[in-house]
Specification:
By secondary structure, the protein is α/β, with parallel strands linked by helices. It has a single domain, classed as TIM Barrel (Alpha-Beta Barrel). It contains seven helices and eleven strands. The protein has a seven-stranded parallel β-sheet. The protein has a two-stranded antiparallel ribbon with strand order 5-6. A hairpin with a 2-residue loop joins strand 10 and strand 11. Helix 4 packs parallel to helix 5. It starts with a strand and ends in a 5-residue tail after the last strand. The structure holds zinc ion (2 copies). One zinc ion binds next to loops.
Length: 269
């Protein structure tokens, strides 16, 4: 079965498609389990910076449109549609997320770190006048702290994302630069029973060495996220499945009302 549990709709400022359109795309792509996860980046309300004006999600509108898409999809369609959110963690935002998230019956909450030193690292401005060491080490400390978020979450998203827009000549974030921090994070993910996401939106997150270290430390829970914003559902699914099986992973984690279910990673031979 094809699963994709990190997908943006037009309710994200950087998303595009109506939920029903995404449902149609998912059926065309042969997806059996889909969870929409729009952005909830409250840090931008409480001191965080983006380089462009940010349209915040209206959770009531998101929920209403999701419910009507679910109703239109009907039963026995072969596609299971689930309701999720990508909660952008920050120390400032966590108390607001704690209040807000339980008001919506999300099947899955993705815990993401987008903010480092007050800036969304999607934007090059986040790196201006800062050393790679400062930004990267702060990112890792933020990820570690985010794992203790005071609200229910299921998935740890795109670990390593800080490198995406980094301007450094060598922008890689290597295990050997911060082995203790990496191990603390990975062990905490395992300890807390969370699923580590493999994100295929741009370059793969986490990188190969981090994913293998996770497995080596005992990590087995993995979720698949295309992080699609524009009809890129299940991007690189076949090659990613093959790759994960080579490492030793056998199942993807999916969530219904925060309860984990395991879906066998398929073979495409
Ligand atoms: Zn994200
Ligand atoms: Zn995302």
């Amino acid at each position: 079965m094809i699963v994709d549990t990190h997908v943006h709709t037009r309710h994200s400022a950087d998303g595009r498609d109506k939920i029903i359109e995404i449902v149609r795309q998912a059926k065309d792509r042969g997806i059996g389990f889909l969870c929409t996860t729009d952005h909830l980046d409250l840090d931008l309300k409480y001191g965080g910076h983006a380089a462009v004006p940010w349209r915040h999600i209206n959770l009531d509108e998101y929920k209403a449109e999701w419910e009507s898409a679910k109703a239109e999809l009907g039963e026995n369609s072969g596609l299971e549609l689930r309701f999720g959110i990508e909660a952008g963690w920050s120390k400032r935002a966590e108390k607001y997320l704690k209040e807000l998230l339980p008001k919506y019956d999300f099947d899955q909450v993705i815990n993401s770190v987008h903010f480092v030193l007050k800036w969304d690292v999607y934007f090059p401005q986040a790196f201006w006048f800062k050393s790679k060491k400062l930004v990267y080490s702060t990112y890792l400390k933020n990820v570690l702290e985010s794992l203790d978020a005071p609200y229910e979450y299921d998935v740890v998203a795109h670990f390593g994302y800080v490198t995406r827009s980094a301007p450094y000549k060598d922008k890689s974030l290597n295990y050997n630069d911060y082995p203790e921090l990496f191990d603390k994070i990975l062990l905490k993910v395992i300890d807390k029973g969370k699923a580590l996401e493999i994100n295929t939106h741009t370059t793969q997150y986490p990188t190969d060495e981090i994913l293998r270290r996770y497995y080596e430390l005992g990590g087995r829970k993995i979720s698949f996220g295309s992080d699609s914003h524009r009809n890129e559902l299940a991007k690189n699914y076949e090659s990613t499945c093959k790759y994960l099986k080579e490492i030793g992973f056998t199942h993807f984690s999916v969530f219904r009302q925060h309860v984990e279910d395991l879906v066998e990673i398929p073979s495409f031979d």
